[in-house]
């Protein structure tokens, strides 16, 4: 009896997670489509440049391994 409960619970959770993810994606796609209709597609020419990464200071010695 106890193993039947856990089996049914695991099947419900597995199916719920799978279908929940698919529903989440569908709702997200509908939201994104509505945003694109409202504001238009994203322009590729207005992309910002990537920030410059500072690895260290010039007066520091490089780390030795």
Strand content: under 5%
Net shape: flat
Which segments are poorly predicted (pLDDT under 50) over 5 or more consecutive residues?
none
Order of helices and strands: H
- Helix-strand category: mainly alpha
The total strand number stands at 0
Task: Note the total helix count.
Answer: 1
As a whole number of angstroms, the C-alpha radius of gyration is: 25 Å
For the record, give the distance between the C-alpha atoms at the N and C termini, rounded to a whole number.
Answer: 60 Å
Structure description:
With 65 residues, this protein is mainly alpha-helical. Helices cover 58% and strands 0% of the residues. The chain contains one helix and no strands. The protein has one helix at 2-39. The longest helix is centred in the N-terminal third of the chain and has 38 residues, at 2-39. The protein is flat and about 70 Å long. It starts with a helix and ends in a 26-residue tail after the last helix. The model has no long low-confidence stretch (mean pLDDT 83).
